[in-house]
Amino acid sequence: MKIRRILLPAFAALMALPAQAQQAGQPAPFYFGADLSYVNEMEDCGAIYRKDGQARDPYGLFAEMGTNLVRVRIWHDPEWTNYSDLDDARETIRRARAAGMEVLLDFHYSDDWADGDKQIVPKAWRSIRDDTPALAQAVYDYTFNTLRALDAEGLMPDQVQVGNETNPEMMGEADWKTTRPGINWERNAALFNAGIKAVRDAGAQSSIQPLVMLHIAQPENVEPWFADAWKHGVTDFDLIGVSYYRKWSTQGLDGLEQTITRLRHRYPAEVVVVETAYPFTTDSADNSPNLLGEDSLLPGYPATYEGQRQYMHDLTQRVKFAGGVGVVYWEPAWVSTPCSTRWGQGSNWENATYFDWRRGNEPTPAAYFAKETYQEPAPIQITVRRPQGATGPLWLWGDFLGANDMIVRLSPDASDPTLYRYTTTIRPDSTVRFQVYDQRPFTKGLIQSGDLIQATVSREGLDASYDIAR
């Protein structure tokens, strides 16, 4: 295969979100989010959030600081608390919408915390835990009915998480990590697909069709999990949610960025860092031990105002460069109050919130991370033209895909079968290398065909066209 290289002038263009996202009410180009699942409880416990010395409504204050997405959790039947049930989630959605923000509803499918270590079946479903069809039906009915109830009040969320940090198999009797190694993917896929179908069916009856997010904790776990999920038929999702806390991850910011890059090229979904946080101090306001301390710090990011602000800026910049579409801060309003949790009086997170108790719960600089200046990724468009009569797919390899063994299958343009296009984004001022093949590469015995092309991507982008001689 002979390629004649033609480089066209750089161009400026905006990358479109997937068709599903555009159909769901034109979401923001980038989500600057906050998980506000604790706010209603904190206010009931006497918390006051201030700006410039004045008490402020927290939802209005977050919107003013640039937040455009509020995440809220929902437990099935949390008898141990009066919060994070349907009534509490309803109140959060109502207040967030009134402040002009979109909402992500996070189904834990548990009566308590579901996370990367444990996924415990709700008490009401315990008797059918091992009856996959019955449990899948329960998941469908609960998800569908919850969304329809919200929609009846004009509170349909814009996005829905089907599960929270679902690294282990969903809905076990105890801690899957210690009692049931591995995942029964026949069961797991049935439960996920039931929840996803419920979101789609509820959205079909609403003016808002929520985007579906699946969520895994820590970047090193995301790719293996999604590979298994996809292999077992879990394919109908719009968003990949990633938790990133350096304390619990083997990856630094480089690893996070590279993971996002690979995910967005490998799956027809957008990527959001849907949980992250960073301490602005290692001090504590109460006797309840804080979860993020010295063991949570990255080199160059001290536990100070500036360290927290710089962490949020740099992480967000890397997410943007990698092609991700959002960053959500976890529990920025879980401040210390006279109330107690099962772990003690106060909060386990006050040193990693956006509010400094030493200054009357005034916002820290990181609270304004949405208003920071960020460099946008540069768009790339690669167009390949084949002679009339040449048929079949082409394959594109590029170092911008994030891994040496990753390729993209190119299909002919619907309006012109001689044209093949691929569009993506990359860090500006980068040099990229790519190669086009007329046979699937990386197969045994294949002799590479096609010239290796190298080009520099300016801040405005790159528009490259190539003719294939045969």
Automatic annotation (TrEMBL):
The keyword Cytoplasm does not apply. Pfam families: Glyco_hydro_53. It comes from Brevundimonas intermedia. The lineage of its organism: Bacteria, Pseudomonadati, Pseudomonadota, Alphaproteobacteria, Caulobacterales. InterPro entries: GH (IPR017853), Glyco_hydro_53 (IPR011683). It catalyses: The enzyme specifically hydrolyzes (1->4)-beta-D-galactosidic linkages in type I arabinogalactans. Keywords: Glycosidase, Hydrolase, Signal. Its EC number is 3.2.1.89. It is an enzyme of class 3 (hydrolase). Residues 1-21 form the signal peptide. Belongs to the glycosyl hydrolase 53 family. This is Arabinogalactan endo-beta-1,4-galactanase.
